[in-house]
Amino acid sequence: MHLIWENLIKNLILLWTGEFKGLDTGDGDYVLPKTVWEAIGEATAAAGSTIPSAYGSRVPNISKDRTTVSAEMWSFWTLYIGPVLLRNKFSQRKYYDHFVRLVSLLTICLKFEISHAEIETVRVGFEQWVADYESFYYQHNPARIAVCPVTVHALLHIADSIRDMGPVWCYWAFPMERYCGRLSPYIRSRRRPFRSLDRYVTESTQLTQLMVIYNLFDLLNLRPLRKQVEGTFSTPIYPTCILLPPRTDDKLPNGVMNSVCAALATRFSTATKKVKVQTVRPHLQLAHIRQWGRVRCIDSDAGDTIRAVLTSTTTDDSRDATFVRYEVYVDRNARDINAAEVLDGTTLYGQLERLITIQLPDAAFAGGARALAKPSDRVIIFAAIRQCVVGPETIHGLNFHFYEKLGGLDIVDITSVQALVGRVKEMAPKKGYALIDRSGSLARAVYEDEDDHARRTALNAEESAS
User: With contact defined as beta carbons under 8 Å apart, do 441 and 83 qualify?
Assistant: First the structure.
């Protein structure tokens, strides 16, 4: 995929900025005004503050210095940031649509698993994309042959490569690139550099073999260990998450308390028993309620840490990790009190405001079959999420959602929170944000070596200690 990130995307940007090998636009009109491109660069750098660190490194201002932008950064900019910031910036929409089609095809190529039907979609899609590229930029003018490097032709062979060898992550260049980068610091002798390399390769291989043969992974592991954070909370009832400090026993605001009462009444209701808010309120007043600052997903080694915006602290250079995707059931007939309840699963986005643990008093479990709560409700973890009012705008072929304001407060079980999401602020005259969700249709395979894992572990440890 390096031919995409390190060549094709860079060449497209050179074309859009009028810097491609001294060529003019010919019969086209694809060059962006300098002020527009500078604004895109500034917005790219600013997006780092609204995208969680779990999504990858900050992308710098690409209008000033592109030499420091890595292939990974170009990949992220192309898939997540570019489609938002380039909207309505070309004088002719066909150039933007052409770029979006490229992003859509690349998204398929980067899937962890890919079907034969999708391979055919990639084949046909790149054939049409290259034909349009020649029409838009080459313009079938031999004097402009420089805009048709071999890497554009190589796009036509991606589908065959996937069919013959599997998804692109099976053979992309990231492992070798990282390995070569790891070798260079160990060249200690200018006269005999290869001896230094040989020694490093031999000793690192020996160390790896010792770890495998004698099961010494923990003892010889050179990765920084994740720090144990004091004051955490976990329970077998919620095996996929851990709550992290700061924590407080401060009383919930009345409005939030009313919403929690309503959520508990809905939780305790059954098809044959309708629980009223008035029934729940006395038990809630006697319950032990605590608020937490963060929640860490522990269903993987690199689980995301999500912050509650009202109960956690941040620094000026921190990256926003408070927006989430969550799922709830909504009554289709909520506005018709006489209609039967019909629940539909709905995906929503919002900002996590509070993390709340509730331990109900024993009275709530008294009465056997007539008890208000079940034994599995001894501990309840609620997430208070301020819903994003998502508008109808979309980017054709891509799973982007846009919002301008936050709406009502939803009280949901923590298991309803599905993923940490990022945001990209739209450029003027737009005032909203685009929501980017790496776990949705834009999910992609990413390369992570031992150094990446170590950096992520260290970052999680710093976040937990802060």
Answer: no
pLDDT of the residue at 61: 96
Q: Looking at 98-237, which runs of residues are DSSP E strands?
A: 233-235
**Count of beta carbons in the 10 Å neighbourhood of residue 398:** 20
The pLDDT value given to residue 153: 95
Nearest Cα neighbor of 288 from 253, 249, 231 is: 249
Average pLDDT over residues 269-287: 89
- Please, which residues bridge with residue 348 across strands? 326
> What letter does residue 235 receive in the DSSP assignment?
E
Place of tokens 């109960």: 311
The answer to whether 445 and 107 have CB atoms below 8 angstroms apart is: no
CA 318 – CA 404 distance, rounded (Å): 22
Q: How many other β-carbons are positioned within 10 Å of the β-carbon of residue 363?
A: 13
246, with CB counted inside 10 A (0-12, 13-18, 19+), is middle
**Residue closest to 47 by CA, chosen among 32, 62, 37, 35:** 62
Q: Quickly count: other Cβ atoms within 10 Å of residue 267's Cβ.
A: 16
Task: Name the token pair of 449.
Answer: 């070596």
As a whole number of angstroms, the distance between CA 304 and CA 241 comes to 10
